[in-house]
Fold:
Amino acid sequence: MRKLFYAIALLLTSCSILPAQSVNKIIARHLKALGVVDRQRAIKTVRLTQRADTGDPADNFDFTVMRKRGNRFREEEPASVPVNEMKGAEPSVPVPTREKGEIGGCDGQTSWSKYAGNPAKIGLGYCDGAADIDGPLMDYKKKGFSVVLVGKETIEGQELYHLKVTGTKTAPSVHFYLDAKTFLLARIITENHGRHQEDVYSDCREVDGIMVAFCDEMRFWTVQDDPELEDKVASPRVGEESRQKQIVERIEFNVPLDDSLFAIPADAVDGTAVKNPSKRTIL
Structure:
């Protein structure tokens, strides 16, 4: 499974601390820019059909993501998916890999994953962030996150508010960058165990009163494995860059999604003995 969700400090061309601009005010403007907050809270289910653009038309493929209130999540991929989804990646670059025909999910408490023709495995899949319809910035304190305003920065000519989101002690910090003019999410960056990942969002459109980024360009490369630098997304680059785009082809809100879609498959066995692994995703 993919995702989730990151640029490097070396790309920054300017940085300034803004003590007068509170985190809560910036987040409030972000949520307002997304759409009416009450309308956002009224969303009970989301179903997305997306296309992975690998750079080679022969290897492009569609996949489906479903979310439902109550921390339920499901992602389906076709059996024809290539095992290595990042074209042109060097062996030194830790790009995501997966089996063909993977289905993963969360039943509300426990994550699971199933490959074509194999028993499902408990503890491999998506819970937590991936299952969150609203994302971590809405009601972040209730969700156990802390958010710090790092500053106002310019990346690739775009002025951005840089918010550092921290959750559990074991999960890496996630760095959110909001466009300083529109307050929409522009990119997300993380670094962890020598791996740099960023998602750059574009093509924002209004769907049922909610702003949705229809394009997520994912970028990956290896970095120096230094926890202190990684927490600041400031690690020196080591490997070559790999990219893939994920394009939203269709998004539907409040469609009927039965709880059975998210249930642990009957043939499941214990995969890692880890429940609710920390995962991140965009929508």
